[in-house]
UniProtKB/TrEMBL annotation:
This is Reverse transcriptase. It comes from Ridgeia piscesae (Tubeworm). PANTHER family: ENDO_EXONUCLEASE_PHOSPHATASE DOMAIN-CONTAINING PROTEIN (PTHR47510:SF3), REVERSE TRANSCRIPTASE DOMAIN-CONTAINING PROTEIN (PTHR47510). It comes from the Eukaryota.
Length: 248
């Protein structure tokens, strides 16, 4: 009987090791495939694999039940007041003091060309969420040849005057739970701002200048501000290492 028990333990360990290797190979294949997809699909698949996919609506309803007696309208106003209060201590900008000299010509390297704007519009993802202007991403992308010239004029004028159009400062703020289920408005909810896509296009052009300026000054271990390196890289490595530890 003792011999049968020992043999059972040996076979059990072999099965467990084989199952762990199969699990590792499965997740490694899944993550390798996810590297070829966009960040939206990457996070969607990652949450599914890790069992973190939740129903956002039910989470917010649960928070409403805990904080506002189930009144979602009151919860929305409470969230809005909290998000606004975060920056209450910051002094307002003095519009009369402008660090830019509007009479000075922009350096040539900081003048945006129509071609640059056209390429930036063409690279806009068609499924990108719209901002408060309700202009779909596909409109900017499909009609880039028509919109590139007027947008370039607005971009360059904004740079010369140091002022961003007020409409491009507006944003739809979406409350996103950091934990599931969220319990506290102050600790468990963070705001996601959806600005107009034209604003994002303008930002992407300026960010290229910033990247060129600080290139070589960022630590190689900083994954957040380097091209083709982000939290996805960190999480992929972390996830695979976790599977390896389970096998070993």
């Amino acid at each position: 009987m003792s011999g049968d028990l020992n043999q059972a333990k040996i076979l059990r360990n072999k099965v467990n090791r084989a199952a762990s290797k199969l699990k590792y190979n499965f997740y490694q294949t899944q993550i390798a495939a996810m590297h070829e997809s966009g960040s939206h699909d990457w996070w969607k698949h990652m949450k599914t694999i890790m069992g973190l996919k939740t129903n956002g609506k039910s989470c917010m309803q649960g928070l409403a039940n805990k904080t506002t007696d189930g009144d979602c309208g009151l919860l929305a106003n409470t969230l809005n007041d909290f998000f606004v209060s975060v920056s209450d201590h910051l002094p307002q900008l003095n519009k009369s003091h402008n660090v830019f000299d509007v009479n000075e010509e922009l350096p040539d390297q900081y003048v945006i060309s129509v071609c640059t704007t056209f390429k930036a519009l063409e690279s806009v993802k068609a499924n990108k969420a719209t901002g408060p202007d309700n202009i779909p991403a596909w409109v900017l992308r499909n009609y880039a040849n028509v919109l590139a010239r007027p947008l370039t004029a607005i971009f360059n004028n904004s740079l010369r005057e140091g002022v961003l159009p007020m409409e491009w400062k507006m944003a739809n703020v979406i409350p996103l739970p950091k934990t599931s289920p969220p319990v506290s408005i102050e600790k468990d909810i963070r705001p996601i701002s959806l600005t107009p896509i034209a604003t994002k296009v303008f930002e992407s052009i300026i960010m290229k200048w910033v990247d060129e300026t600080i290139e070589g000054e960022i630590d190689a271990n900083n994954l957040g501000e380097l091209a083709e390196r982000s939290q996805q890289t960190f999480l992929s490595n972390w996830f695979i290492c976790g599977i390896r530890r389970q096998i070993n």
